[in-house]
Amino acid sequence: MMNEATKLTVSASPHVKGEATVTGIMFDVIIALCPAAIASVAIFGLRAALVLAVCIGSCVAFEYLSRWIMKKHSTIGDLSAVVTGVLLAFNLPASIPLWMCVIGSFVAIVIVKQLFGGIGQNFANPAITARIVLLVSFASAMTNFPAPKTPDAVTSATPLATLSDIYRSGDIAGQLSLYRAADKIPSFFNMFFGVRQGCMGEVCAVALLIGAAYLLIRRVIKITIPLAYIGTVAVFMLIASRFDLAFTAYELLGGGLILGAFFMATDYATSPVTTKGKLVFGVGCGILTAVIRLYGSLPEGVSYSILLMNIACPLIEKLTAPAYFGFVKKKKEPKEPKEKKEEKPKKDKAAEPAEDVKPAEPEAQPAAEPAEKAAEPETPTEETVAPPEEKPEAEPEAPAAETADEEKPAEPEEAPVKEKEEQPAAETKAGGDGE
Amino acid sequence: MSHPSPGAILKAVSKGRGGIHVAHNKLTADCETVRMPVPETVLLPMQQHIGAPCTPTVKKGDHVDVGQVIGDSDKYVSAPIHASVSGTVTAVADTKLPNGRIAPAVTIRSDGQMTLWEGLEPPQVTNKQELIAAIRASGLVGLGGAGFPSHVKLNTPEDKPIDTLIVNAAECEPYITVDYRECLENSWNIMGAVYTLADLLDLKNVIIAVEDNKPEAIRVLQAIADDDNDRGDVVKLMTLRSRYPQGAEKMMVLSATGRKVPAGGLPADVGCIVMNVASAAFISRYLKTGKPLTSRSVTVSGDCIKNPMNVRVPIGTIVSEIIDFCGGFTEEPYKILSGGPMMGQALVSTNVPLLKSNNAVLAFSKRSAGLKAQRDCIRCGRCHAACPMGLIPTQIVKYAAKRDAEELARLGVSVCMECGSCAFSCPANEPLVQHMRLAKEIMREAGVK
Ligand code: SF4
Ligand code: SF4
Predict the structure, then answer these.
(1) In this structure, which ligand is nearest to the CA of A78?
(2) B264 vs A338: CB contact, 8 Å cut-off?
(3) DSSP bridge pairs for B313
């Protein structure tokens, strides 16, 4: 039947492929960002749409141009530049001059992404880095937040700045209720639906949570990082405020925490791939954010926290390397199978360098074991997590508290990072507000 | 039919991780195995197993009968080759195997008689050593695809007591249905094998493992498992969640016993032997008849095959003849595989013989097996999530590119079983299995284990 001339294709197994594609994943992220994008236009008016359009357009253009100049195949089809554009816009105030958007896009796409080799190769989140560059360069434009286009909006400092003052006053419960009574801080309802000052995409918690639910259901992201992140912040805030629930809720809804935890900290390229790594990463982000907000000179710390943890990501991955199947800690046991096989003399010699490697990381391994166990029961949660529209802070507290405690000894890298972090905080002090 | 006694079915505890959902596409599940007419010639390579190749023991012009030894080796890890048709040896020459290796092969022109060799008689087996000697003489290798000589597997060292035999009927690869048909058509042999092995190897447990998407097989195997309730209930049936790669040895041991085979080790290290269900059925048949491994069932399927079916063919039959027997192609095939779509080997040509370990011949059009454009890794972690061995393929790719053997060893590349779950899941279409092989090669060159 088949003539011999027929050319058969030969390739490595497997010969069938799953459905997932890069473009499909990015498209899902775009869909997930839509509710918050619509909300931002509803809250801040058409100006927000303009900022969005400029950011997306310039990101795609820069992506196309830089690939063209570097003579590499075009990657605008994978839609990742669109995602970066939307996220960048979400991190800017709606009143930002449009040329600054273009500069931000340039930083995000050309400097952070393409100069490091394109998608998957960047060491830091493009949108976050761009935001921080803009914040440092154009502090006043970046911190001059327009008021929401709604009648009952509170026009004063951002909620986080207010919270910072409240925390410093010492009498948290009393001060907070005073502020609330005097309408100096938005009501919970307004916080939840985004009627407050802030960056375009971060204000509307409910829209962000709908998008996050979509990403979780589509399994584009795992719940691990957001849960660890928000959970850690919640625990910190609860303790710092001596268990003042209202204060903690404001902290969770305020600023860019929800946007950051679900959409930025989960960026594939700059977060660990393993569950244990994700836990450490999320807890690290949470600790940094809480520390910056409470003790730093900035009211907001989400961007800085994520950026710092992005940089620490390769280290985290190394220290939290999971045990692969059948990994044996002691030298004793792996030797047995080796002796069994026939090429015994060769293998024993070969085994020596391997054994040098193993003792080199005993710190990571033993600590890793319990953490793995703690991580595993979470997996079912992430599958059933369907309705995260309900406030995430209510539930996560308990599990996050546990993991937070367990994780702390496992992150020796945490301490130095924390100290370093305060310097960039000080630099932008002049701007007075990272929010 | 006996009712499943409550609690008799072991539900596999889902201790394993990773794995993927693959469309089953078991098109031939309801096709009773058909015996193919005797081919005119067969080509029998001297290397159809993992281990030392055999040396031909016949020369051109010799007359051979079915079951006569035509190649053997004095090495222990090897399995003799038997004539699969009766007729005349027309050539003894080197040939290229589907995997690209060169091995000597014996060509036999069939006389159409299929005369059995007169030297065949049922072996006398009363203890483990005799069983192992008999199995070596039968030429049996793992029929599930790996091709590891079965006697080596059964001959576990004294210091590693074996308490559990796992009969693997999971058949988690898509399309392939030979094991499933074996369960339905040869349940008596499976049952015989189970009892013989349990007695001779003094086993405490025999666990027949099957995926839960095969209710018919479960019904039949359940009857076997129930039948020994009065003998101490050694035999149990275990249903596995159907998830690829449930049929992999280490996965099987984990699901059945909760034991983890150490990296670099074998199931025997944790007291288990895993045997394919068709291999087990063969052992029973061999002990009764003394007829060595000269034919096997093979699933011929895929969207380019006119009449997908299960065929029983003499070993060494040329693949293109088997395809012709199944009605040939409906359209020009893009890829032809020996084995399943996840781990099978793509053939360069169909002018190759069917080997002992080939459980399927699949022909695919470009539509269903077309290569997808490769993109850059986005570090999404899907490969890690899918890997049943807990490896991190994306990092392995990175260190393989740097040829860093030490890091590769730390990442545990050697436990990779090339199941393909990672590459299946990769949105960037990275050829991850190829990278894994490269990584192993780098480690081998550097002498790192
Ligand atoms: S699945 Fe593919 S794209 Fe995702 S991390 Fe693995 S190699 Fe990279
Ligand atoms: S091929 Fe290897 S690395 Fe990939 S999923 Fe299978 S065992 Fe894991």
Answers:
(1) 1
(2) yes
(3) B296
Whether residues B390 and A322 touch (CB distance < 8 A) is answered with: yes
Highest mean pLDDT among B141-155, B200-214, B420-434: B420-434
Query: Which of B136, B215, B176, B174 is closest to B296 using CA atoms?
Result: B176
Interface probe, candidates A1, A3, A11, A13, chain B, greatest B C-beta count within 10 A: A13
Interface check for B52 against chain A (CB to CB < 8 A): the answer is no
Is residue A328 a part of any domain in this protein?
no
CB B389 within 8 A of CB B417: yes
Percent of chain A with pLDDT strictly greater than 90: 43
pLDDT: which is higher, B446 or B9 = B446
CA of B420 to the centre of ligand 2 (A): 6
* Residue A419 structure tokens: 């100290």
Q: Is the peptide bond before A226 cis (omega within 30 degrees of 0)?
A: no
**Using CA positions, which residue lies closest to atom 3 of ligand 1?**
B377
Asked if the structure places residue A402 within a domain, the reply is: no
B10-29+122-289 to CATH, choices 3.40.630.30, 3.40.50.11540, 2.40.320.10, 1.10.10.10: 3.40.50.11540
Q: How many domains does chain A have?
A: 1
Cβ–Cβ gap A336/B395 under 8 Å: no
pLDDT at B16: 55
Q: Taking 80 as the threshold, does the pLDDT of residue A406 lie above it?
A: no
Q: Which of B250, B378, B444 to mutate to test the interface with A (most CBs of A within 10 A)?
A: B378
Q: B227 is written with which tokens?
A: 């039948």
Q: Phi first, then psi: give them for residue A424, nearest 5 degrees.
A: -60, -30
Backbone angles phi, psi at B290, to 5 degrees: 75, 10
Ligand 1 touching residue B65 (CB < 6 A): no
Q: What ranges do the domains of chain B cover?
A: 10-29+122-289, 382-446
Rg (CA), chain A: 24
Nearest to residue B179, comparing CAs of B188, B168, B189? B168
Model pLDDT for residues B192-219, shown as the tens digit of each residue: 888 888 888 888 888 888 888 888 888 8
**Looking at ligand 2, which residue's alpha carbon is closest to its atom 5?**
B387
Integer Rg of chain B from CA: 22
Residue of B nearest to A358 (CA): B410
- Please write the tens of the pLDDT for every residue from A171-191: 888 888 888 887 778 888 888
| C-alpha to C-alpha distance for A293 and A301, rounded to whole angstroms | 6
> Hey, is the C-beta of B97 within 8 angstroms of any chain A C-beta?
no
How far apart are the CA of A266 and the centre of ligand 1, in A?
A: 15
According to DSSP, the β-strands at B295-301 and B360-364 are parallel
CATH number (domain holding residue A132): 1.10.3430
- Whether B343 contacts chain A with CB within 8 A: yes
Q: Answer whether residue A117 is part of any domain.
A: yes
The structure tokens 């199944």 sit at: B326
Give the range of the structural domain holding residue A102, as residue numbers without chain letter. Answer: 22-319
* Per-residue pLDDT tens digits for B218-265: 888 888 778 776 666 778 888 888 888 888 888 888 888 888 888 888
Q: Tokens 């899918």 identify what position?
A: B386
Distance, in Å, from the CA atom of A108 to the CA atom of A103, rounded to the nearest integer, reads 9
Type of residue numbered A297: S
Q: What is the DSSP letter of A111?
A: I
CB contact under 8 A, A324 and B391: yes
How far is ligand 2, taken at its centre, from the CA of residue A371, in Å?
23
pLDDT digits (tens, 9 = 90+) for A13-30: 888 888 889 999 999 999
Q: What pTM value is reported for the model?
A: 0.82
In single-letter form, the type of residue at position A40 comes to S
pLDDT at A287: 95
Find residue B244's DSSP bridge partners.
Answer: B20
Tell me how far apart the alpha carbons of residues B178 and B225 are, in angstroms, rounded to a whole number: 21
Residue nearest to ligand 2 atom 8, measured at CA: B387
Q: Which is more confident, B115 or A382?
A: B115
